[in-house]
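agent: user wants the structure for ABM domain-containing protein from Hyaloscypha bicolor E. delegating to structure tool.
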Amino acid sequence: MPVTERLILPVQSGADWKEPLKFLLQTLKKQEGNIRTRWGPHSENVDNLELLIGWESEAAQQTFQNSSDFGTVMSQLKPILREEPTVYFVQFVPYAPKEVIDASIVQVITVPASQESAIKSTIESYKSVSGCTGASSGLSLAEVKGKGAKVCVAVVGWESLEHSQTNATKVDVGSDVEVHHVNFRYPVKGFRGL
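agent: tool returned. relaying tokens verbatim.
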């Protein structure tokens, strides 16, 4: 069953992360079971890079993680990181729709799994709002480090950051809500993407 690996790389302020990221992306592209990868910095903090990596299964990602390629990638990334990356799997329903991931800007909302129905209702209402290109959500497959529980991740595609800021209502599902925006089509010079 296809899964999405959510990887957030906290890079050092001012670090030149494009070459290490390019190396990671080129390495991922060669891995058996890799479906596609989207990446970009958070609009609210460009020192956080987010990647959504599609895998045919968790086992495919585990094979990559156990390979020498993974060690080489980590040796490239380690010098630019300010702390450990955040990484976990999400089962999106529907699976990472193209109209969301390929939008000009994607609003990423993370809430405790206990708030899944509330966030699904919220993003469902966004679909009829001007500038929204689509939405999807999913639960993490396991407890997320630092959260103490599973989380629900919602992704909402927007034609622009302004459309999101103007038309998206405040997410009111409790105090433990993280919201940021990512251009998952962010260009890396010399690399056309996946």
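agent: one observation worth passing along. The first strand starts at residue 3 and ends at 10.
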